[in-house]
Specification:
Nucleotidyltransferase, domain 5; alpha/beta; DNA-binding transcription factor activity (chains A, B); homodimer; about 425 residues; Arc Repressor Mutant, subunit A; HTH_MarR-typ (chains A, B); ROK family transcriptional regulator (chains A, B); ROK (chains A, B); 17 strands; 3 domains; ATPase_NBD (chains A, B); five-stranded mixed sheet
Chain lengths: ~425, ~425
């Protein structure tokens, strides 16, 4: 199978107006409608597909043929429980041939994931981010971080190839806003980076032949990754909160990602909630991040506690915190008891501005959902202004893999949007 | 011309997924593409239309014929400056036959407006909202308010008919979130209303035969009304701030209105910006509304100052404030000097969450733009985190007519979305 070698940006940017429709575009649009319908709602018969999409049965048959030729859908037997007669056949997403790859480049870890068209994780790998401890503090040396990121991507590409998967695209998630036009990281303050040409640097390291590479912010990808789970509950308006060193929000409204005009939406870590609050490294006071960032938890521990070490995998650091809590560490217990009220101060603002139906807690918020979920839900319920409806608080189902999973999903968007991008299977 | 009699809701709700495309729908979609193109970009030749929309020249000619038959477009001579030869013809929006009507139902005034398809105001009327001063304070008696609103709508309909305009729809804007499914006002706390079946009550008062009647929140309509002005500067991400007794935000992201899952987006008057701030009537502390609402200005005046009287037209109350300021009223000068910092505390949060390219000041903020605009712009510039880009602050160009103008625009959306809704002109 062929691979395209290019570093583009603006994953499915959605900045398109209504376009006029010709006959070739009509066929392509209808292929997309069918594939999306199966992707969203699961396998069903041709007759059901025709009924639900409004396409004629003849059109459905012809379009399904095109999709099957590209290994995007397959036919299978339906098990009908409790009925007599021969089993029907249904059309389903074919998970065997097409995949997307996502890489999260975080302050604490690099996580890569390969997902097939059915959304199943085919490969995952997480390693600590290279960090230098200097007398002045921590720094994240650009070269080694990029080298390791490229190595992770190469490993994922090799795994996909070994499993017979054509890769639709690569999406890389830095912890900060992205310049979609140039493929650079505008600012990743917790890494100490600004205006890094990330797409070009990774593309160069990968060599000439690689699938299209795009950038998207970590919080936005995590929101996209959680969206299908919530869509199954008919929830299309949600806010995902990253719980890392910083706090970012991924916003989805009416099923669409809200990026902001320059990609800076959801930079909520520095909303000022208290003019008399603690000083923030950004220069303001009472920023949300000072109240609920991961550092606000680590700060209560001894300086050399292993949970504070950036050299250790994040899973081990979280496990260490859990052990301390289970051993009855009073400082941590106190911190986690105060956390819900501070979380709700910021989350309440997001509810008033955006009116989401769901808030998803990611990062360490999600890892300690057993302690945080109920008090956060109760405090949000208590502050409802009027019958705006209850906001459902849940923990991320994807944990530390959320942004990488979202990246793989965004890469697969390329095929859902235009199924003709996938190559015809060789016989 | 026929009029439809129904009270529906959810003006152009935008909750549609990708739909499959058949041939009839294709024609209807292409009529909409052409009409929107002319509506957004102004008159142009058939050749230019074909080039810009990607439609064939033959299709454009045929589609323009359909649109002209319904009085939506017309042909005219182009004046070519500095060129020789016979003048070309161009296709333009025809403003003579189709209109929309918007009514704002505010705490202080009822404003109605008729706008034609070219966006020109054909009729405007503003009257003070009926108010009862009781020992307990002010109340807004439901029956008299609804009667007056219906009277305003009847007057506007009669004006439209007298001018030969077919009315595509009526949009009514209460000062609070709307239940789109039932056509009721969920809560209008400053009117003391909750769960008022506004669409049904007005529809009943208008009688059986009237154009479709929809509800939409005032801040959201105002944002929609200002959007075309900003779109001409290529700005598609904006926040409109109502500056009334309460403060609400209308949010437009990538050209689309963000409603929130239950219509409660932009309820920003009660975001808590200071745990030690003044008590709000909502029960919280340090709400943005307590810092910048119209009452925070009126409160510095004598109790019986005419500016505080709800019996007077809003324009007169604003004029009174202006006179006091010009006479050097020290209390007002001090209040207006403190206002920008308080405005930016809330606006800054909206910038961090939404990353808009523009903030539009409405209501009394807009009326005193000469005092507020520059300091607000400077304070927002000073708090930029990184190169997220400068937010342009401007005053509403529509002033107290903004929500009514937005309502008329939403009503006209019905025709832009499906031009076949407009009746064929009688010969």
């Amino acid at each position: 199978m062929s691979m395209q070698g290019s570093a583009s940006t603006a994953a499915g940017s959605g900045r398109r107006g209504a376009a006029p429709v010709g006959h070739a575009a009509m066929r392509s649009a209808n292929l997309s409608v069918l594939l999306r319908h199966l992707h969203r709602h699961g396998g069903r018969s041709r007759a059901t597909l025709a009924q639900e999409t409004g396409l004629s049965k003849a059109s459905v048959t012809s379009l399904v043929g095109d999709l099957a030729e590209r290994g995007l859908v397959q036919e299978g037997q339906v098990e009908r429980r409790g009925t007599v007669g021969r089993p029907g056949t249904e059309v389903r997403i074919d998970p065997r041939h097409v995949a997307g790859i996502g890489l999260e480049l975080n302050v604490d870890y690099l996580a890569v994931g390969v997902r097939d068209l059915a959304g199943v994780a085919r490969f995952r790998s997480t390693v600590p981010t290279p960090v230098q401890d200097t007398p002045a503090g921590r720094s994240f040396p650009l070269g080694p971080v990029l080298d390791l990121a490229a190595q992770q991507l190469r490993e994922a590409l090799a795994e996909a190839e070994a499993q017979g998967l054509w890769v639709a695209g690569l999406t890389v998630a830095p912890p900060g806003p992205v310049d979609y036009a140039t493929g650079s990281v505008r600012v990743a303050s917790n890494l100490g980076w600004a205006e890094v040409p990330l797409a070009a640097e990774l593309s160069r390291r990968l060599g000439a032949e690689h699938p299209p590479l795009e950038l998207e912010n970590d919080a936005k990808l995590s929101a996209l990754a959680e969206a299908p789970r919530l869509a199954r509950q008919c929830i299309t308006d949600l806010v995902y909160l990253t719980g890392d060193l910083g706090v970012g929000a991924g916003i989805i409204a009416e099923g669409r990602l809200i990026r902001g005009w320059s990609g800076f939406s959801g930079e909520v870590g520095h909303i000022e909630l208290d003019p008399a609050g603690p000083a923030c490294r950004c220069g303001r006071r009472g920023c949300w991040e000072t109240l609920v960032g991961f550092d606000s938890v680590l700060a209560v521990l001894d300086e050399h506690d292993p949970a504070r070490s950036g050299q250790l995998p994040m899973t081990q650091r979280l496990r260490r915190l859990r052990e301390l809590l289970e051993a009855g560490d009073a400082r941590l217990e106190e911190r986690f008891a105060a956390l819900p009220a501070d979380l709700v101060r910021g989350a309440g603002v997001l509810v008033d501005v955006l009116n989401p139906q769901a808030i998803v807690l990611g990062g360490y918020f999600g890892a300690f959902a057993d302690l945080l979920l109920r008090p956060v839900q109760e405090a949000l319920d208590a502050r409802l202004l009027a019958d705006g409806g209850r906001v459902e608080v849940s923990a991320s189902a994807l944990g530390l893999d959320a942004a990488a999973a979202g990246g793989a999903a965004v890469a697969l968007e390329r095929v859902l949007e235009d199924p003709l991008r996938a190559p015809v299977l060789s016989a």
